Amino acid sequence: MNFYEVAIIGSGPSGALAAYYLAKAGISTVIIEKENLPRYKTCGGGLVYRGRRRLPFDISSVVEREYAQMNVYMEGEQKMLSSHRDLPVISMVMRDKFDNLLIEKAVEVGAELKERHKLTHITFGQNLTLHTSEGDIQTTFVIAADGALSPTAKLAGWKETRKLIPALEYEVEVNEEDFERLSKEVRFDMDSVPAGYAWSFPKKNHLSLGIASTKRTRIDLKAYYKKYLEKLEITEVLNEKAHGFQIPISPRTDGFSRKNVFLVGDAAGFADAVTAEGISNSMWSGELAAKAILEAKLHPEQAAILYQQKLDQELLPELNTSLKAAKWFYTFRIIRNMLLRKYGDYAINFMTDLYTGERGYPKNLMKTIKAKILESKLS
Ligand SMILES: Cc1cc2nc3c(=O)[nH]c(=O)nc-3n(C[C@H](O)[C@H](O)[C@H](O)COP(=O)(O)OP(=O)(O)OC[C@H]3O[C@@H](n4cnc5c(N)ncnc54)[C@H](O)[C@@H]3O)c2cc1C
After folding, report:
1. Considering only CA atoms, which residue is closest to atom 31 of ligand 1?
2. 15 pLDDT exceeds 90?
3. For atom 16 of ligand 1, which residue has the closest CA?
4. pTM greater than 0.90
5. Which of 10, 107, 254, 267 is placed for a possible disulfide with 144 were both Cys, Cβ 3.0 to 4.6 Å?
6. Within 6 Å (CB) of ligand 1, which residues are found?
7. 297, 305 Cβ separation under 8 angstroms
8. Closest Cα to atom 51, ligand 1: which residue?
9. Domain at 164-248: CATH architecture
10. Domain residues of the chain, as ranges?
11. What is the CATH number that goes with domain 2-64+94-162+250-316?
12. Which bin fits 57, alpha (ψ -120 to 50), beta or left (φ > 0)?
């Protein structure tokens, strides 16, 4: 039976970055992926600069478009909120190519990829035996990078404590005229669906249009998507592929490691609650898990402590603030819009700074907002 020091389940951005850092440090690392790569992943493919700037290698070969400006339209409001920076605030990628490139980078530095290997069961012991559709693999550490459904977390005994929200993604081909018009901007349309938003992310030759709601009650997202096509004034849909999935927008409450299994990315619930943007935090958490294992010199208990410490230092405080902000933002629509009419420019610039990584979420959001309002009243 093959033995690896670390086995990573899943070849998304969280798994790829974990594999990259571990393999680069000389740790025997295997990536176990149930699909054949490159594989389609349901996602808008909007990579914010904060994620791109953390990457230890260049990814421009898979970037289909870059936008230095993002536009936010508020339902029923006249003014569009907009901000511009002299850098790609948001890069457009198709996840098959993007994820594949990240995996290639991990393989280049020594990680082994096992495609079409579906993890089905784990036998726990001093080492772990991973039972896959193609045979068994032995390992000391498992990094669960297997996405929102995370079979690995279930096999290791985690209960569901994340908040999962429904989202639809459509890959849409439109006529030349509409594409020319819509590919000029990346746009977010707040409240195009109750307690959520829609997006238009232009790719090389088509649009990735999507819709997500932070409400978990039954909601006909498809009907809201149809309305969104009207709002975008799309005259003709030439081709359309629909994909539905879930986004975990709150971290698990029962820990991120146990029995030598470490959760990263969506498996841990690390997408941002306001924007549902998950790629950058996935990559970040993959990096943190790898660094914890490396710094602990492969000592399991020490690695678990270090991983928790690393999460507590930055990622979790940010996610907790974003969770509180999202609750407020999507619940109090009238007050929120009133404030945005007055302080919209501040808010969009704040969001853009978050997206670019110029700043993180404040630890105390309400205090920061109140101080900002007071400051603008005095000036
Ligand atoms: C509709 C939608 C739109 C989104 N848009 C954006 C966006 O524009 N920008 C953004 O930043 N985020 C977006 N997200 C969130 C983003 O897609 C996720 O946060 C991100 O993909 C999480 O990465 P990950 O590495 O944790 O997992 P994933 O990317 O989900 O990768 C998990 C991998 O594990 C593999 N796997 C699963 N089970 C097994 C098994 N049993 N054995 C072996 N392999 C297995 C899967 O095949 C997959 O390759 C969106 C999500 C959705 C649903």
Report:
1. 12
2. yes
3. 278
4. yes
5. 267
6. 9-15, 32-35, 41-46, 118-119, 145-147, 151, 167, 169, 210, 245, 247, 265-267, 271, 277-280, 282
7. no
8. 43
9. 2-Layer Sandwich (3.30)
10. 2-64+94-162+250-316, 164-248, 324-378
11. 3.50.50.60
12. beta
